[in-house]
Amino acid sequence: MDIRKPYTQIGGNDSYSGRSYDEQYITAFIFKHELPCNPTTAFLTPALRNHNRIMTLDLQLEGRSAALYKTALELLDDIATTRVTAKMVLTQIVRELTAIRDAKRERMVSLLQSLETHQVELPLSAERILTLIEQHLKLPHSSRLPVFIVAAAYESVGATIEERIRPLQAHNAADSQTGAVGDVEIVLKSEHLIAAYEMKMRRVTKDDIDAALQKLQHHRLEHYIFITTESVEFVVHEYAASLYALTGGTEVVILDCMGFLRHFLHFFHQNRQAFLEIYQRLVLGEPESAVRQELKEAWLALRQAAQT
User: Fold this and answer.
1) Beta strand residue intervals within the chain, DSSP E
2) Which value, in Å, is the radius of gyration of the alpha carbons in the chain?
3) pLDDT confidence of residue 264
4) Buried-most residue among 17, 88, 133, 176 (CB within 10 A)?
């Protein structure tokens, strides 16, 4: 095989399917050893997809950073011209990845231990928790966090209100693929779906609501709730409010993310510490492809500062 031909479309007896290798071997290997990689892209990354020509040094790959892709092409050329063996490269890649993985694990253990040593008898107030969550939301790459806010809220009071959330779908999974109605789905003990939440790290538009109406043609819900981190335009709010009769009894509503959380933490004040612990568990347990390591470490640092 010519390592520079990761697509059978390139042609020749020495081309191969890089995607097939990913699906059959690489993804499982990444999961098994918890390597710091995105296990679902690889040859599907935008810089590599749709190239049906040999990956030579003159190929212009559009990806960030440009130097990274230039170096990758040079490495493929080194292997193809036998300046280095594929086995040597693979060995070094795994060595580097395990070193990065172990270093991240050590940092997380250290941060968690430090957090434990700063535990205080008096739980954080609801307003202090709100400040903590708001600081976390303002960090880069935080689009997954509103999902955890709503999920943690329901999970912390599920026994009281006799409602629970369905298992969360992957961050990059489209509703059309999973069959989900929203980012967070609420069911009763009977598994009857009663509400769905859709998260937006931007303003909600009428087009967003119209897309939700398409889903509601196949699902009878009590509520379809948009959670947004931006302000809500009056005309959009009015449009959502006008749909109750049209949907046959589904209330479509747009809520500010922090406003939702503030009301929840004060209404269920005794559950605020449970909410905090569940939110942390969800954040730390999410794959890096959805919540970056930096965002997890930042949460622990923010919480320690809040408790000190």
Assistant:
1) 163-165, 184-188, 193-200, 223-228, 251-256
2) 24
3) 95
4) 133
